[in-house]
Design goal:
Radius of gyration: 24 Å
Shape: elongated
Oligomer: single chain
Helix content: 55-70%
Length: about 250
């Protein structure tokens, strides 16, 4: 999957801030020197810096070149402490593309977020749209909140919103398909799972899977506990898969 135009734009703008002399070395570092026209136009005038960067990148710059550029710029201009605003902007854009920024031992690196199975924005958009279309608007809203929290690296908030997404969906299905009535003032996720099982809506093994997910979802959310990127990724990925599967089976 190529990097987004937004990520390319941020990197291009940052590269153009180097000045003509340093830009030459920067472009060569990313194996883009062969496309660099240099600062001199035919006839004696100069190319401006954004034009040089644009020409060096070409129409479809490779993921490898853009990541090399971004990594070099981060190493040159950000030390991991008191980060300038553009670092956060770059981090969020890369995260939406499925990559994360990390700073360790005085050097920056950019690599895939967690695991290759991270739900990409199209999958998230499709599931959110399907939830809304099937009448699960509250669950769709919590799901979008979970994804937004994941992108801004608020792992505990992601876990909490993921739990709310699953609970809302399971309770709504149990109410519609099994006559479940939640107790006032309680979410009812655990009881909804039991009612769904009693009504025969789970195939063998599915009830155990959902019960295990539900039990795990009560740790390391906004309260109680702390979480990590890998844990939030696992929970969000698992919820995305389960929601997509059960949504289509129970509401088709």
């Amino acid at each position: 999957m190529p990097l987004s135009e937004r990520t390319e734009s941020i990197i291009s703008e940052l590269a153009a801030g180097y000045g003509h002399g340093r830009l030459t070395a920067l472009l060569k570092y990313a194996n883009l020197g062969k496309n660099d026209p240099g600062k001199d136009k035919p006839g004696g005038s100069w190319y401006n810096l954004p034009t040089r960067v644009s020409m060096a990148l070409g129409k479809d710059p490779s993921e490898e070149s853009l990541i090399a550029l971004a990594t070099k710029i981060l190493d040159d201009r950000a030390n991991g402490n008191n980060e300038p605003k553009w670092v956060d902007e770059l981090r969020l854009s890369f995260l939406e593309d499925g990559f994360s920024l990390s700073f360790d031992g005085g050097k920056w690196s950019i690599g895939p977020v967690g695991a290759e199975e991270i739900p990409l924005p199209p999958q998230v958009s499709d599931l959110e749209a399907a939830l809304n279309a099937k009448g699960f608007a509250v669950s769709a809203n919590h799901y979008q909140q979970a994804f937004s929290a994941f992108k801004r690296q608020d792992w505990e908030a992601c876990n909490s919103a993921t739990r709310s997404t699953m609970e809302g969906f399971l309770v709504d299905v149990a109410k519609a398909e099994a006559g479940f009535v939640p107790r006032p003032g309680q979410g009812g996720g655990g009881n909804a799972i039991q009612e769904l099982d009693n009504s025969g809506l789970f195939e063998p093994g599915e009830n155990d899977y959902i019960k295990g997910f539900w039990k795990m979802s009560h740790t390391n959310g906004s309260h109680p506990g702390l979480s990590s990127e890998q844990e939030a990724l696992f929970r969000f990925s698992a919820a995305t898969s389960a929601l997509t599967f059960f949504l289509h089976r129970w509401t088709s």
